[in-house]
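Q: Could you fold this chain for me?
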Amino acid sequence: MEVRTTSYHLSIIFIQMKITKIFITLLLCATVISCSNDDNMVESLVGQTGDLIVKFDNGVGDQDLIFDVSYDKSSNESYKLTSVKYIVSNIELTKSDGSTFMYPEIENAFIVDEADANNAGEIYITLNDVPAGDYTKISFGVGIDQERFQKGADGQGNLLAEAQEKEMLWSWATGFRFIRLDGVYSDATVTDEALNIHMGSVGTSLDNYREVSLDAPNTVIVREASTPEVHIKADIAKVFDGQTSVLFADGYNQVHTDETTTPVIADNLMGIFMIHHVHNE
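A: Sure. Below is the predicted structure, expressed as structure tokens.
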């Protein structure tokens, strides 16, 4: 009886060892296949490019931006706008591994003009030939940086002609308007007074270029066969009630090249943007 029991136990142990061995072999195979698939995926993205659409959607607080509609501001002021335009440049994308891609400089400046918006109020910027990858952040400048400006008119690519056409250029010596808001404002003492925010750098003497960095709420997947869309909301109300709240009555109804008022508006512009959502196709 003892011999039988011992043989039986040995058989059970042998079977268990076989099962364990098979399980380990299967686990190793799965690991190798998984690693191989990962390597193939990485290799398959090398040299692959795709397009990326960045959509700017201007609003006022939680309201849509509509021309000639009155919006309340702090301190019992209100305003109506008839034009909203701003320049974005130096668009840079950051991958999940921390590496970055800067869009080619000569093409990397765009005028976002509310007059060009579609029926949904969106202005599209298409970035072509973006390296395939998984991106988690987008950064860009508001305006034109000094390095680019100092390359002269010939260093601006198509931007110079577009800026002249859209009235976003004072003169080459003075520089670009980084943002242009036109309309009227009212308060307790005045009604429909002129409102003109034409903020920019003043040559090389006053640098109002600012940079913005936005984390994506989900991964932006760029592939040859898919074109993701990054939907950026811009809250125009924060131009006046952002990092600093300003009063139109204190001279902020006319902001052009002044060394006191323009940096305040430039700093406020950094906080108007947020990524609302990412749509991967």
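A (continued): The chain has two domains: 1-46, 47-279.
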